[in-house]
Amino acid sequence: MRKTNKNKKFSIFNILIALIITAVLTAMYISNVINVNQLSSKNNELNQALSETRINNDALRTEIEKLCTFERINNLASEKLKMKYSESSIDNKDVITIKKSELQ
User: Fold this and answer.
1) What is the pTM of this model?
2) Range of the structural domain that residue 89 is part of
């Protein structure tokens, strides 16, 4: 009979160890799921911010292209700097020097 009691004690002990190990593994799994969800949420936020930044960059590129057009530059040069466009200046490769004080 004593052997039976020892077997029962060991089997109860083994069951308790198995339950503790199962509880620890379950807690680790739940923690992992929570961390994955947090990382997924942060990833979605960063992707949204990246998308907004790309949209802003495209808008800024469009604005730069509008500001760099020949017509706009020609109008600003003729109105503010009193410059005139001449085909001959392109052929002669003349260098034009403008002082900063003249721009303001």
Assistant:
1) 0.55
2) 2-103
